[in-house]
Design goal:
Order of helices and strands: HHHHEEH
Structural class: mainly alpha
Strand content: 5-15%
Oligomer: single chain
Number of strands: 2
Length: 106
């Protein structure tokens, strides 16, 4: 719902659709979507300035999907060369505790 509200700030329906596709392709959060729309509106130029999403390795995408399914929340694997990090989103203290318990149970 929040994504849609952010996209409504763009006046052109074609532009809304293009940014919506980018949001889906890049798995942007509501806040990231709001920030991208805000930049577009403030700059007053077409959203072509928004960076193209990097192609994600199929194995990395599969690992993200498996973690999303197991943890029940958004998970991103961010790679930088041979290193990287795993980002796990949570929206409340209860969800953090649930995720922690899922990760630490044997």
């Amino acid at each position: 719902m929040g994504h849609a509200r952010a996209l409504l700030a763009l006046g052109d329906p074609a532009e809304q659709l293009r940014i919506a596709r980018e949001v889906i392709a890049r798995s942007l959060s509501v806040r990231e979507t709001e920030s991208a729309v805000k930049k577009i509106v403030e700059q007053g130029r077409p959203p072509a300035a928004v960076a193209e999403p990097k192609p994600v390795d199929v194995h990395t995408r599969a690992a993200e999907d498996k973690l999303k399914f197991l943890l029940g929340t958004r998970v991103r694997i961010v790679r930088r060369g041979g290193r990287g990090r795993i980002e796990i989103d949570f929206t409340s203290e209860e969800e953090l505790i649930r995720i922690f318990d899922s990760l630490t149970e044997r």
